Amino acid sequence: MAKKKVVLAYSGGLDTSIIIPWINENYGMDVIAMIADVGQGEDLDAVVAKAYATGAKKAVVRDLRDEFLREYVFPTVRAGAVYEDKYLLGTSMARPVIAKHQVEVALEEGAEAVAHGCTGKGNDQVRFEHAYQALAPELQVIAPWREWDLHSREDCLDYAAAHNIPVAASRAKIHSRDRNLWHISHEGGELEDAGNAPLESTWVWTKSPQEAPDKEETVEIGFEQGTPISLNGQRMDPVQLLELLNEIGARNAIGRIDIVENRFVGMKSRGIYETPGGTLVLTALRELEALTLEREVKHYKQQIALKYAEIVYFGLWFTPLREALDGFVEVTQQNVTGSVALTLYKGNVNIASRKSEFALYSEELSSFTMGASYDQKDAEGFIRILGLPARTRARLLNPKLGHKQESVR
């Protein structure tokens, strides 16, 4: 009788490295390692070799970089979604695309189950498992962290040593990191004490302001309907564009954040994130929207952004509400086409210029020089009508004011 199969979302890191032998020992299932390339910059051939060496029956690699940016990152950016004012949702956006392809591999391979290496305390378990339920609810879910008797990363290191599994993590390098094209996250180690500043060695991508160049650098990002399409006038595909923006932002100390955030499961956690290119994209898009969006649309979109960020952070990507909000955002972005130039200097981002053929900004209207297109006398009637409820309430609160008939002018 053929063994049952499970498809594991495999990164080759500490957790997933020990999960392959653990599933073999505890479930007796054949493990298929699904390796998603979302721009983590690793030697994927080495990751494949490690999967086989630790007991995987098969390894499947999928290049998801373009899909990740086009269908997950850019829609989230167009929505303006930032979680709790700081977090640009790098890990949150990557999980649904990985889970989607993990499910596809499971169905193609005739697997009965899917597995992940997320802990029972984190958000990622929700992100993966909600996606499984939305896409293939018939699949069994194996979540070793909720079953095994390992309680810490130190326990995992001991398990790896006992099974002769090589891992990059150590007791000296205990941070948990997640990297993709959009960001790097760091948790654990000295960061578990919210009173500690990050060690300078904990940052691995962006330069510190002290190390950044002593000269300003200017970049111009072009957008088409809210999607970034060019850098300094040269049109590029999404992966190439973001890789270059990451390089530019990182050398100028752009994109570092330190946050105590509210996890979906109810606890607070502390981590640091490096999002160099993403910070530049989001900053530029906000400026272009300021130029092209009508006031009420822009203000209401800020409310949408908050909800969209929650949906992505909470792992609810494959839901009707997210799809419905995408419809609203798509309409708002129809005229968000143009370019924004940013000046970068030692961690600071300033606006050098904003340009769009759909700009609603009018120099004639905004200028202190009075022109024929705006009659200042109209403001008097506007203000009196606007203030009618305030005057009515004032008379109610102070009867001495009386109830004189409002004059019509």
What does this structure look like?
It is a single chain. The chain is of the alpha/beta class. It folds into 3 domains: 5-64 and 82-176, HUPs (Rossmann fold, 3-Layer(aba) Sandwich), CATH 3.40.50; 179-355, Argininosuccinate synthetase, chain A, domain 2; 365-401, no CATH class. It contains 13 helices and 14 strands. The strands form 3 sheets. Strands 3-2-1-4-5 form a 5-stranded parallel beta sheet, with helices on both faces. It has a 5-stranded antiparallel beta sheet with strand order 10-9-8-13-14. A hairpin with a 2-residue loop joins strand 9 and strand 10. 35% of the residues are buried. The model has no long low-confidence stretch (mean pLDDT 93).
CATH superfamily of the largest domain: Argininosuccinate synthetase, chain A, domain 2
Major sheet: 5 strands, parallel
Task: Give the termini separation.
Answer: 92 Å
Structural class: alpha/beta
Give the class-level CATH name of the largest domain.
Answer: Alpha Beta
Q: What percent of the residues sit in helical stretches (DSSP H or I)?
A: 40-55%
Summarize the structure.
With 409 residues, the chain is of the alpha/beta class. 41% of the residues lie in helices and 19% in strands.
Features:
Argininosuccinate synthetase, chain A, domain 2; 5-stranded parallel beta sheet; elongated; 409 residues; 14 strands
Protein topology:
Blueprint (H helix, E strand, L loop, with lengths): L4 E5 L4 H13 L3 E8 L6 H10 L4 E6 L1 H14 L11 H20 L3 E3 L8 H12 L4 E3 L10 H10 L13 E4 L4 E4 L29 E8 L2 E5 L2 E2 L2 H14 L4 E7 L5 E7 L1 H17 L2 H20 L5 H13 L5 E8 L2 E8 L7 H4 L11 H9 L1 H10 L12
Parallel strand pairs: 1-2, 1-4, 2-3, 4-5
Antiparallel strand pairs: 6-7, 7-12, 8-9, 8-13, 9-10, 11-12, 13-14
Helix pairs in contact: 1-6, 3-4, 4-5, 7-8, 9-10
